[in-house]
Design goal:
- With 94 residues, this protein is mostly helical.
- The chain is 72% helix and 0% strand.
- It has 4 helices and no strands.
- The chain starts with a helix and ends with a helix.
């Protein structure tokens, strides 16, 4: 009885897999000729990008000003730290 149940289950599984299968040939549907187009063909209607000279110069000027302000702040902080070290050294020497 057990042997018949195993054969029945195997037969049912084989039939279920066969029923879900498809007999269409998918290799003809998706060929490289009809799926992808060359990049040159895709870019024919696209205009060349143009850099905005005013925006680039404004951004560069802002970045330079920010860098200069940061450098001045760092120089002031370094001068304050050096003054503190000198004061501490003088206090320790007395």
């Amino acid at each position: 009885m057990r042997k018949y149940a195993q054969i029945a289950l195997a037969s049912f599984g084989a039939l279920a897999l066969a029923a879900c299968g498809s007999s269409e040939d998918a290799s003809e549907d998706a060929m490289a000729d009809n799926v992808e187009i060359p990049a040159d063909e895709a870019m024919t209607d696209v205009e060349e990008p143009v850099a905005d000279a005013e925006a680039a110069s404004d951004e560069a000027a802002d970045a330079a000003a920010d860098a200069e302000a940061a450098a001045e702040d760092a120089a002031d902080a370094a001068a304050d730290a050096a003054a503190d070290v000198e004061a501490a050294a003088e206090a320790a020497a007395e």
